[in-house]
Write a structure and sequence with these properties.
Oligomer: single chain
Order of helices and strands: HEEHEEEEHEHEEEEEH
Distance between the termini: 40 Å
Mean pLDDT: 90
Radius of gyration: 16 Å
Number of helices: 5
Helix content: 25-40%
Largest sheet: 6 strands, mixed
């Protein structure tokens, strides 16, 4: 079981999948064969993730562009399985895939919400892994700074005040101010 998993242990994707559920207050991923154990996320991280998932999923489903999920294993390579905070799969990407199988294939679009425990080099590695696996764009959102950066293979990283992906989700636009305010609603 996952409670016997050791951070930093080398393993295959099959061994990773055999771990089962994460132990309480942790999140497991596999990065190039190495088991990564992260602490549970804080309230703001989860609130931003949940608001963003709702905003993307509502738009994607209404327009039949594809599906959105959060915290779901996606395979990025022979020995890499990540759990994006929020990700979007265009309909074509999932054609022929089993919705009950894990891990899912690499998504088209990924949103990662930064947490206080995140390290820059780990985030950079994660972004490289997503893009190498065919993800078209990766967004890193920083609720503490109220900022977001967009990464893709064909552009340098860009700081943005508005989330939008016209090639994948034509017409979808969300300002960071609106997203972060929605996540804090009820708390302030």
């Amino acid at each position: 079981m996952a409670s016997k998993a050791v951070a930093g242990a080398m393993m295959t994707v099959e061994e990773y999948l055999a771990l089962g559920e994460d132990p309480p207050m942790t999140r497991l991923e596999l990065s190039e064969g190495r088991l990564i154990v992260a602490p549970s996320s804080n309230y703001i991280h989860n609130a931003v993730r949940d608001e963003l998932r709702q905003m993307v999923a509502g738009f994607a489903q209404t327009n039949a562009f594809g599906v959105v999920t959060s915290e779901t294993d996606v395979r990025l390579g022979e020995a890499t399985v990540r759990r994006p905070d929020v990700c979007f799969f265009a309909k074509e990407r999932l054609r022929g895939s089993d919705p009950e199988a894990l891990p899912l294939p690499a998504p088209d679009l990924v949103f990662e919400i930064l947490s206080p425990h995140d390290r820059r080099r780990d985030l950079e590695l994660k972004v490289r892994q997503y893009l190498a696996a065919g993800v078209q764009a990766v967004w890193l959102l920083d609720p503490r700074r109220g900022s977001a950066a967009r990464y893709s293979t064909d552009h340098e990283p860009e700081q943005r005040a508005t989330l939008e992906e016209p090639d994948l989700l034509p017409g979808w636009v969300v300002t960071l101010d609106d997203l972060f305010a929605a996540a804090r609603r009820g708390w302030d």
